[in-house]
Design a protein that fits this description.
Helices cover 33% and strands 18% of the residues. It has 383 residues and is of the alpha+beta class.
């Protein structure tokens, strides 16, 4: 028994020494905080995305005259919904909040931030800072040349067809996804990705690829990502509140693949911008042609997980068909959604703590059907 006790102490000692290594900073944080949560921004350093010209949504004449259908309310509770907002004809039609959340409460976007990065790329192209989506990544980050004679382009990053070895895994404390989230050196992780297959062939969802896009943006614009998004999007869209973009360390880099912290009302502005085809208050913020490309799935790619043509992903935006509706949307891992529904000139936003692990035949989380059904019910009743 004494030998077993000594052995256990030795193992525990080695484990403690391993965890306390400077390179395992991310692991210590992961063990303390466990899985990501929607209100974790205070544990990170953050950079402000300034709302320089705030203006509230105009209220619809039918504002909050309808309710979420009773048969769906249990599902709203089941998945920990904290905010639900419906915009119709550029007016706030409906909003509801749960627990301690309000119209100004910050909540993590998680991967909805990927869509924001894609919009910023479009702005940089409009500004002439990036030639077009076919420009080589190596013009900005020389370490990424491509594979097997195929040059890696910005479009390959936008469409998640980069052909790199990043493993998207949320349950393992040792995965690069966990290192991105809890770590303090995004550059080390991203620049350490290896090109292992031809780009432009397979759609493989990888957060590290979006983070690489953010490094490209910094090189192209000469600005911090938060500052550029504030200047080109957040302020012109007249967001009501400052947002916070979580960083890897003090004065560090934005966690561009996630961690844009804002509220449902202001997240809805991104959806409205798509409805407006890039216009806001008569000013073209981003090319309508770019937005059309961004929200159209690239069917030339193979959705590697299912070995079928990609019908659901464009430039960091998702797409689905709901009954007879074509819906482009932003999506985060804990059920963060901004749905754009042109047929109704509407935007639906849902923020919460959970999403379903079950997928539909179109490969989207089936809790989406709940939020679309509820939002469309409110929209139908407003007519």
């Amino acid at each position: 028994m004494k030998k077993w006790g000594v052995a256990i102490l030795l193992v525990l000692g080695c484990l403690a020494a391993f965890i306390t290594l400077p390179s395992n900073y991310y692991l210590r944080r992961a063990l303390v905080h466990l899985t990501p949560k929607i209100d974790q921004y205070p544990i990170f350093e953050n950079r402000t995305v300034k709302a320089g010209n705030p203006s509230p949504w105009e209220l619809s004449p039918q504002y909050n005259q309808r309710a979420i259908p009773e048969q769906l309310q249990a599902d709203f509770t089941k998945y920990g919904t904290v905010a639900f907002v419906v915009i119709k004809d550029n007016r706030l039609l409906f909003e509801s909040y749960w627990d301690t959340y309000s119209s100004s409460s910050l909540s993590n976007s998680f991967s909805m931030a990927k869509s924001i990065v894609a919009l910023a790329i479009g702005c940089a192209i409009d500004d002439g800072l990036i030639r077009n989506v076919h420009q080589p990544v190596s013009d900005f980050v020389p370490g990424f040349q491509g594979f097997d004679g195929e040059v890696l382009t910005i479009k390959h990053l936008l469409t998640m067809s980069a052909g790199v070895d990043f493993e998207e895994a949320y349950t393992s404390p040792f995965s690069p996804t966990t290192k991105l989230y809890y770590g303090n050196n995004l550059e080390h992780i991203v620049y350490g990705m290896k090109e292992i297959e031809k780009p432009g062939v397979n759609f493989v969802y990888q957060s590290g690829v979006t983070q690489l896009l953010a490094f490209v943006l910094e090189k192209a614009t000469g600005e911090r990502l938060s500052d550029y998004v504030s200047r080109k999007l957040w302020t012109p869209m007249q967001a009501e509140e400052n947002a916070l973009w979580s960083l890897d360390k003090a004065n560090g880099m934005e966690k561009a693949y996630c961690c844009f912290n804002s509220n449902a009302r202001d997240f809805a502005r991104f959806g409205q911008l798509l409805l407006n085809k890039g216009y806001w208050n008569g000013k073209q913020l981003i090319s309508s042609a770019y937005l059309e490309e961004a929200t159209t799935p690239d069917a030339s790619l193979v959705f590697a997980e299912y070995n079928e043509p990609n019908q659901c992903y464009g430039y960091q935006f998702w797409h689905l068909k709901y009954h007879d509706l074509e819906v482009s949307y932003m999506r985060g891992i804990l059920g963060q959604y901004v749905f754009v529904i042109p047929e109704h000139n509407a935007v639906i936003v849902r923020l919460g703590e959970k999403r379903s692990e079950t997928r539909t035949s179109q490969h989207y989380p089936d809790d989406i059907d709940i939020w679309l059904k509820a939002g469309l019910s409110i929209l139908d009743m407003s007519n």
